[in-house]
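Please, structure for the following, as tokens.
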Amino acid sequence: MAAAGQRRPSLRAVAPVHLLLLMIVVSFEGSQAAAVGGAPTWTTALQQHVAYFDTDNDGIVTYSETEAGLRRIGLGAATATAAAALINGVIGPKTRPDNATTSRMDIYIENIQKGIHGSDTGSYDAQGRFVQAKFDEIFIKYAKAEPNALNQTELEEMRHANRGSNDYSGWAASKAEWDMLYSLAKDKDGFLQKDTARAVYDGSLFVTLAQKNGGSSGGN
């Protein structure tokens, strides 16, 4: 979290940056089945996706954890700072329990399903579970140049097709997510491979990117 007196980064510096936590469930007690003193065991793909950023395994992703995590996976310092401010600023209040005493920018993983946005693929259901059929549909419909990969033009076509009527925030979130994913994870020929895209849904891609950049593997 930014220290008192620091100026918040401009939101304009974020686009097109990932809102992916974007994004983005069972009860808190049910979602943590680890032994006493251990890390929480998250049960949905969306919870696992976000848990990468929870480096102290307390079930809460702070602004500083988001910023550090984004830097680990390959974003520059300025972009990661601005993106973290936007991500936590938007999602934190949506996931915050009524009785919470922490910052409104803190993201509570137990409630991350409340941060899911519209105008996307439907590969997460309303509880944050991964929907394989919806994910496969992306490549069945839009992977034309290569059967199991998408180029930038095909990604744009997919995003536009998924736009909900007047869902401007959903359009922006979807664009930021897919633009960031494509930028960080496309192959040398400019394709986002299906297996690579699949790995972002449970957060395992973040570990791969961090290791590629010489960073730690994050939470859990």
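The chain is about 45% helix and 5% strand. Confidence is low (pLDDT under 50) at residues 1-6, 9-36.
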